[in-house]
Amino acid sequence: MTGTTPFERSDALRAEGERRITTAYATSQLVKVLQECDTMIELWHSASALYIKYPTESNKIEMEITLSIATEALKEKKSTEAALVQVAMLAEELGMVE
To answer: At how many degrees (to 10) do helices 57-93 and 6-53 cross?
Structure first.
Protein backbone atom coordinates (compact mmCIF):
# COMPACT_ATOMS: atom_id res chain seq x y z
CA MET A 1 0.00 0.00 0.00
CA THR A 2 1.38 3.40 -0.96
CA GLY A 3 0.73 6.80 0.49
CA THR A 4 1.03 8.18 3.96
CA THR A 5 -2.11 10.21 4.43
CA PRO A 6 -5.33 8.56 5.54
CA PHE A 7 -6.92 9.59 2.23
CA GLU A 8 -4.14 7.96 0.18
CA ARG A 9 -4.31 4.76 2.24
CA SER A 10 -8.09 4.68 1.96
CA ASP A 11 -7.93 5.22 -1.78
CA ALA A 12 -5.38 2.42 -2.19
CA LEU A 13 -7.52 0.05 -0.10
CA ARG A 14 -10.61 0.93 -2.13
CA ALA A 15 -8.77 0.24 -5.40
CA GLU A 16 -7.50 -3.08 -4.07
CA GLY A 17 -11.01 -4.03 -2.97
CA GLU A 18 -12.37 -3.20 -6.42
CA ARG A 19 -9.71 -5.39 -8.04
CA ARG A 20 -10.55 -8.27 -5.73
CA ILE A 21 -14.29 -7.96 -6.40
CA THR A 22 -13.73 -7.77 -10.16
CA THR A 23 -11.45 -10.79 -10.06
CA ALA A 24 -13.90 -12.79 -7.96
CA TYR A 25 -16.78 -11.91 -10.26
CA ALA A 26 -14.81 -12.80 -13.39
CA THR A 27 -13.76 -16.09 -11.83
CA SER A 28 -17.32 -16.98 -10.85
CA GLN A 29 -18.60 -16.20 -14.35
CA LEU A 30 -15.90 -18.34 -15.95
CA VAL A 31 -16.67 -21.21 -13.59
CA LYS A 32 -20.35 -20.92 -14.55
CA VAL A 33 -19.44 -21.22 -18.23
CA LEU A 34 -17.31 -24.28 -17.46
CA GLN A 35 -20.23 -25.89 -15.64
CA GLU A 36 -22.56 -25.19 -18.57
CA CYS A 37 -20.03 -26.72 -20.96
CA ASP A 38 -19.75 -29.81 -18.78
CA THR A 39 -23.55 -30.11 -18.79
CA MET A 40 -23.68 -29.97 -22.59
CA ILE A 41 -20.92 -32.55 -22.91
CA GLU A 42 -22.67 -34.83 -20.42
CA LEU A 43 -25.90 -34.55 -22.44
CA TRP A 44 -24.04 -35.89 -25.44
CA HIS A 45 -22.65 -38.78 -23.37
CA SER A 46 -26.17 -39.63 -22.25
CA ALA A 47 -27.60 -39.39 -25.77
CA SER A 48 -24.77 -41.54 -27.10
CA ALA A 49 -25.33 -44.18 -24.43
CA LEU A 50 -29.06 -44.17 -25.18
CA TYR A 51 -28.40 -44.65 -28.91
CA ILE A 52 -26.01 -47.53 -28.23
CA LYS A 53 -28.62 -49.21 -26.05
CA TYR A 54 -31.59 -48.36 -28.31
CA PRO A 55 -30.36 -47.63 -31.86
CA THR A 56 -33.51 -45.95 -33.17
CA GLU A 57 -33.57 -43.18 -35.75
CA SER A 58 -34.79 -40.60 -33.24
CA ASN A 59 -32.03 -41.53 -30.79
CA LYS A 60 -29.50 -41.24 -33.60
CA ILE A 61 -30.76 -37.74 -34.48
CA GLU A 62 -30.64 -36.73 -30.82
CA MET A 63 -27.09 -38.05 -30.52
CA GLU A 64 -25.99 -36.14 -33.63
CA ILE A 65 -27.57 -32.90 -32.41
CA THR A 66 -26.02 -33.20 -28.98
CA LEU A 67 -22.67 -34.10 -30.56
CA SER A 68 -22.71 -30.83 -32.46
CA ILE A 69 -23.52 -28.91 -29.28
CA ALA A 70 -20.93 -30.85 -27.25
CA THR A 71 -18.27 -30.10 -29.86
CA GLU A 72 -18.91 -26.37 -29.52
CA ALA A 73 -19.06 -26.73 -25.73
CA LEU A 74 -15.65 -28.42 -25.72
CA LYS A 75 -14.16 -25.56 -27.74
CA GLU A 76 -15.75 -23.04 -25.37
CA LYS A 77 -14.51 -24.99 -22.36
CA LYS A 78 -10.92 -24.92 -23.60
CA SER A 79 -10.99 -21.16 -24.22
CA THR A 80 -12.70 -20.56 -20.86
CA GLU A 81 -10.07 -22.63 -19.06
CA ALA A 82 -7.38 -20.52 -20.75
CA ALA A 83 -9.17 -17.34 -19.65
CA LEU A 84 -9.35 -18.66 -16.09
CA VAL A 85 -5.61 -19.27 -16.13
CA GLN A 86 -5.08 -15.70 -17.34
CA VAL A 87 -7.26 -14.32 -14.53
CA ALA A 88 -5.28 -16.35 -11.99
CA MET A 89 -1.97 -15.13 -13.41
CA LEU A 90 -3.16 -11.53 -13.37
CA ALA A 91 -4.34 -11.90 -9.78
CA GLU A 92 -0.93 -13.27 -8.83
CA GLU A 93 0.83 -10.38 -10.60
CA LEU A 94 -1.32 -7.94 -8.66
CA GLY A 95 -0.36 -9.65 -5.41
CA MET A 96 -3.83 -10.97 -4.77
CA VAL A 97 -2.76 -14.58 -4.23
CA GLU A 98 -1.83 -15.47 -0.71
So the answer is: 160
